[in-house]
Amino acid sequence: MRSKLAIKPATAAPIGIFDSGVGGLTVAKAILKQLPNERLIYLGDTARAPYGTKAGKTVARFAVECVNYLMQYKIKALVVACNTASAYALPALRERFGIPILGVIQPGSKRAAAETPNGSIGVIGTSATIHSGAYPKALRQLAPGIQVFTQACPLFVPLVEEGWIDNPVTHEVARIYLHELIAKRISSLILGCTHYPILKNVIAAICGSEVKIVDSAETVSQELSEVLAQRRLLQTKKRSHSSLQCLVTDIPDAFIRVGQRILGSELGSVRKVRVMEVT
Amino acid sequence: MRSKLAIKPATAAPIGIFDSGVGGLTVAKAILKQLPNERLIYLGDTARAPYGTKAGKTVARFAVECVNYLMQYKIKALVVACNTASAYALPALRERFGIPILGVIQPGSKRAAAETPNGSIGVIGTSATIHSGAYPKALRQLAPGIQVFTQACPLFVPLVEEGWIDNPVTHEVARIYLHELIAKRISSLILGCTHYPILKNVIAAICGSEVKIVDSAETVSQELSEVLAQRRLLQTKKRSHSSLQCLVTDIPDAFIRVGQRILGSELGSVRKVRVMEVT
What we know:
The structure is a homodimer. By secondary structure, chain A is α/β, with parallel strands linked by helices. The first copy, chain A, has helices at 25-34, 56-70, 83-88, 90-96, 105-115, 127-132, 134-142, 156-161, 168-183, 200-207, 216-230, 253-263, and strands at residues 15-19, 39-44, 77-80, 101-102, 120-125, 147-152, 188-192, 212-215, 243-248, 270-272. The interface between A and B is medium-sized, with 30 and 30 residues.
């Protein structure tokens, strides 16, 4: 059996956030709002992004390599802010690293199930996330009577990264992807990819006001807050300004451009790092 | 100085083709047509694709790692069938590996310059390829009086991989990307990304019959044929059927689906391999 890395917990230690690219900043933003005293270290694997078009095993390997890199910062908890990595890598990460590790699928599913106890739920995400079946599995465990319909939307991420947020093309692509889900009369729609909240207005306009849009970022933050409190790991010392340090494996223009759009402010320093293979 | 790997030339040795993903099969197809007796080994770095959104240094590092892997097959020549890698990685590859190495930018530029000696040329490609300025540089060296206009088209690759070839959305995206180039009254348009020939009909319909569409696949094959002949490396032994072996670093559905569309036939075996870091 592989021995877990020994970590000394400390309330002052940072929280690690891992994502395939820039989309996870939607989760980082929610965590900064919920836990303003915490220090966040974000790692986006932009050199190998996107994950959503790739095989589960490959995604799990990449995730282990990235989190192994983050461990040098002695993070006290990890949020996997990428739906595809949450779908494929959580068991491997939990086996290897001895800190609390939260994904985004369970919190998003919990919220949707709570809000739609008897209805039917739609889930959209990358090809890999939808192919994994992770959302239907989580939702059916939470609310066995629920009906779940899924749809992969592979063009949403490149449209966001191209900055075509209000473009009529994006509206038309969303209409094509969503019309079957709408025909199923879903009550809620889970945005199962961290890029999708950026398209929330377009998606909501097509779905209509009767469909509740569920984004897991806020629920993950609440859950993280509870986990840290239970383990007495919450930072209580007040911080005068939010602390987010961004690390990336490649610096594409899109990271800065999309990142600033997500945070609604300057990103601050973004440092390129080299993530090594883990065997 | 780093010593080059010693390679024993042999006419029976295979030709290596390297691409970030599946698009380079458009080049492989042209080479199989031009040189039907040769054996091709294709490596697509699908685990880290696309390259076109990434930084030049990262692309160069990935290319060196992939070609280092291909060298174990004792390839007698290499075609870098990826415009982004051709734009950023040729010097590093030529310094390290002692075999003939051809990119796609020089041959595509040669053809366009020959066909448009006094006109103006448009170039479309990924963000990284356009950002590199490699096409304008190559074109101006070949025909100093020529005018060159460029346009990055980041959504074309995901549209091809989603299979939306004849979709009205793709037509509209192409119209948005191309309208400024058309307004410049270009005589030729270079398809500076190996995925784009799959969208040739859409692109040609928007450009109109007065714009010549230039795809480098055929010119690269001719140049490869000349290089092998000069070095007496051409395989003269007749082969009863074409030989293409595909290696990939990840097997996404899109590789099989898009690959078969490109080749117009079954892909045969596609084997997943692990490319290691090179320091």
